[in-house]
Amino acid sequence: MRSSLNRGRRVAVLLATALSLGWLGNNAALAACATVADPGTLTGAFAQQVEVEEARAAGLSLTYSDNPLFAADVMSGKLKPVAERLPEQPLIVLPYDSCGTYGGTIEGTSRAPTSGTSDILSWRQAVLVRISDDLKTIVPNVARSWKWNDDYTAITFELRKGHKWSDGEPFTADDVVFFFEDIIENKDLSPETTAEWGVNVHAKALDPTHVEVSFDEPDPGLLTYMATSGSYFSTFAPAHFFKKFMPRYNPNADADAKAAGFDDWKKWFQNYYQKWHDDGTVTAAALEVPTLEAHVVELVPDTQQRVFKANPYYFRVDSSGQQLPYIDRVHERFLTADLQVLAILNGEVDFKAQGNELSSYPTLKDNETKGNYVVSLPAGSIGTSFAFNITHADPKLRAVYSDLRFRQAVSHAINREEMNQVLYFGLGSPSQALPADLSFATPENQTYLTEYDVAKAGALLDDMGMKAGADGMRTFPDGAPFTILWEYSSQFAGPEFVKLMSDYLKAIGLNVNAKEVTSEASRDNAKAATSDINMEWDVPYEPTLIADVGLYVPYYSDISPLFGVKWKQWYNTAGKEGEEPPAWATRMFDLAKEWKTVLPGSARYVEIGKELIKLNQENMTLIGTIGALPKPVITGSKLRNVKADLGTVHFNFGYLYPFRADQWYKN
């Protein structure tokens, strides 16, 4: 132990001396840099990263070095030298294994410009705070620090002095204020303040690097949301770019919008701004909007691909002073599920997590050598859950789907043991739909109404008046033919799952017409309340439930509602809009509102959590199949600094965001 520490001290001293003198070349720096594997004395308040003051205390004085990608622009004067592009207080990160070398392109793939792109977005995303790779600790990122008031109704963030947008303009507290005051609280743009921000959120710039965000009620789960499922969004926006679209700052905004070919200023603004950042990178407008992300859009996107280039103003450096990211470009191709697998087998993909089906694991494993990749199986999947549309737009279908007996019958019709073997190689276990890894869930919650009992399912449907005809298929209670139209997206359920489930439903007399559609179509149908079954429920883990309890109450997803949109409208407007929900749903809304104000882990927190489970299960709002499953993850053999033992790789932890893809490199 002592020799290791002494070696670390010698490395730190040599590195500090060499870098401060400016004569240490790149190769020598790589040999000496502090890493997660061997940090030496370079430690700070948070693991795997340090602030500049902590680096100085460890004897490290960095001379910053630049990506050769920008050399010509620096020589021509188009870009300033790297030391002038970085913040005065950059975040210094320790790579997992080694300080990297610049260059190369990461090859990735998604389903479509708005389908299955969260994985690649997580490679470049930048938000105020981040969750570390222990999936528990929240650490500084864009923000250097934060401080809550005593009752969790206000939080003050400290930003990095000298931080710049990708166009070189200053990033300051005003950009955080602009996000909250001009977007979130702007009723023209956001008629209902989104659930994650509560009601009456306000922001105030205290000075250029300090901003206070306050709420009408306590919000102790805010940072957890921002660091997990909220990591796909940003609590800031480039005010200097967006102000021209808004009448508050530009009296001619409507006229300018019409001159630009838009109906009004709102349409003009929305052409450039999307809450979900990847939705803002699907058109040529993406080339204009400044960002803080590791890579910026380089070419006009199309339906085939997107290309991103390293951001010359990115705010992070490694422990040898090299500005991140190391990788020059990210190339994202849009391919169907089958073509994605083929691309992996052909060695055309450097990393892939999202959308990899466990059913493809044997094929992927058998072709590792051919495809020049390795397959790992970290946690990160939950067997598919689904919800019948209780608030269907069709009154006859709504009457059936909202009958609790129907949903209970379907749960009993599922042979989960068989499904586990057939689809998941026996690697999962039968389970009812639940948020994952809850500290307050019980084994009884896991097994609630999971008994496979076709006779009991049939009796429940008989009791509803859904009689079986000569062909064995059941009718509506009035005798009319009954068919479930299952329009599914392969992003949320593979055809094998849908086929097996359809067989189970047909075995109890429920006819099914299954049809694969795009993710966009499935979301549109869900929002219009015309889909029979909705499936885009990204199972929340406890940290994400802390952050956004809306994931476990109707309508379960604002991107693709499962059901109950009008119920929530009624609740939020005190009955002025929407339709009155049943008492159990109202109770869930009340509990969700209170949950947001209680301290995680407290006695009341546990009480609310248990009651939410009870209400969801007793009303069979979600129907689960199989519990936790491993997720096949593909890592190209040339990709470096990928954490060897990836933890849970899941949407609700931000996919790869905890594992710092900006320090990946290739050799």
Automatic annotation (TrEMBL):
- Report domain Solute-binding protein family positions: 137-532
Its predominant location is periplasm
List the protein's name: ABC transporter substrate-binding protein
Keyword Signal, does the record have it? Answer: yes
GO biological process terms held by the UniProt record: peptide transport
- Signal peptide residue numbers: 1-31
Q: Which family does it belong to?
A: Belongs to the bacterial solute-binding protein 5 family.
Entries under InterPro entries matching the protein: SBP_5, SBP_5_dom
